[in-house]
Amino acid sequence: MDRAFPMSDSLQRTPLYDLNLELGAKMVPFAGFEMPIQFPAGLMTEHLHTREKAGLFDVSHMGQIRIAAKSGDVKDAAAALETLVPADFVGLAAGRQRYGLLTNEKGGILDDLMVANMGKDLLVVVNAGCKVQDADRIEKALSDRCVVTRQFDRALMALQGPAAEAALAPLCPAVKDMRFMDVIETELAGVPVTVSRSGYTGEDGFEIGCAGADAEKVARAILAQPDVLPIGLGARDSLRLEAGLCLYGNDIDVTTTPVEASLGWAIQKARREGGVREGGYPGADVVLKQTRDGVARKRVGLVADGRAPVRAGAKLFADAEGQKEIGVVTSGAFGPSVKAPVAMGYVTPEYAAVDTPVFAELRGKYVPLHVRAMPFVAPGFKR
Amino acid sequence: MTTYYTKSHEWIRVDGDQATVGITAHASEELGELVFVEAKDEGTEVAAGDAAAVVESVKAASDIYAPVAGTLAGFNDALSDDPTLVGKDPEGEGWIFRMTVANPDDLNGLLTAEQYKSL
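^ Those are the sequences you sent over. The predicted structure of the assembly is below.
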């Protein structure tokens, strides 16, 4: 055994587990996996390094699923997936990736996912905690038309930050020609990989998928490049929060709809009211009605006026006396790049406009915040 | 002046019934860089083990407990401007609050430096 006291026998390990320990990771349980929360550099340094240079994240706990149409035509797989996700996948060109939401009959969000058209099939990346139920749901709904393959033993790593392209190009020259949300199949350090130009930090960067057995070779090759540090899940959370990106289970879940979550942009024109393939997904009636008539709460970005971080679960009020409750914080942390406490949460629509002052309950006091536009930091994407 | 320690990683430096409280170097290392520190108002009466202050890293908030019963007697205002002082000098410039100890005999129930080290 690698450790005298394993964290728990029931926790799974990613293919990069040994390397994470070698790099000095502090490991924590996350979504059933033993994952690095931070490395010796520490959360603050890891966050800022990713914004200024490049950081490598082990995200192999996430689920990779392939969907191939039995007809052999990827458009048929795309059309099939559209019955579960309100996004335009039929119109997604080969070599392109798109964000989507898996909805239930009430329009609630079962998971958020990234879907790539790989030319011959679809590559779907889903959250670790949802991957089995997602795959079950997709398989059940699509098995008459598609072959659904779980690739849960594959590794996934993200290289994020303004120096990501310079770090990756010597190992894989093709990445220089990619733009935001492009996906290719190529070789990296002699290993067959999938590479997408996307991520979860608001920075330019890539996500690299490969066989589990090859993961350490790929990770070591990337870490050997200048300006690359290993980054833990702690900094991943503060980076995504500053980028205004939702964390499934915190900011979105089965009780929130795409409209309430301010994710209407993820439903392309073809699937909206009057679109060529309007509706046709679970909960479409709810989502279409909410789009038309409005909702009782909206997800918004919040920045505190003071220095005290406001955390998930804090109640939001319209007034400094805590008389009128208007919502709740779903994610909150100090934003190392924003240099102020940032948060997101749900408020009633009359308080959702940018620059509206609100107050959060914090240790018996009511601290002032303002609704602010997200992302809280300027995106670094290469369009 | 004598310094005592708690199992929850506070230190308390005592001169008569006047004491200064902070977190140990070990606790500071575990928490990482701090972004916010706040203590309860001066004059607040606390029992041993009551939350008297809070320190926050990017990720999480942690309570700092009163090692013994007493009355809070002031906050280290320098931490309002620079909470990273705690990480730079946890058992010196990075002290968090002062308190008046209600019953100095209570200190005998705390850990000595050697006992704390051997935890």
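The longest helix of chain B spans residues 25-31. Helices of chain B lie at 25-31, 78-81, 85-88, 113-117.

Shout if you want it in another format.
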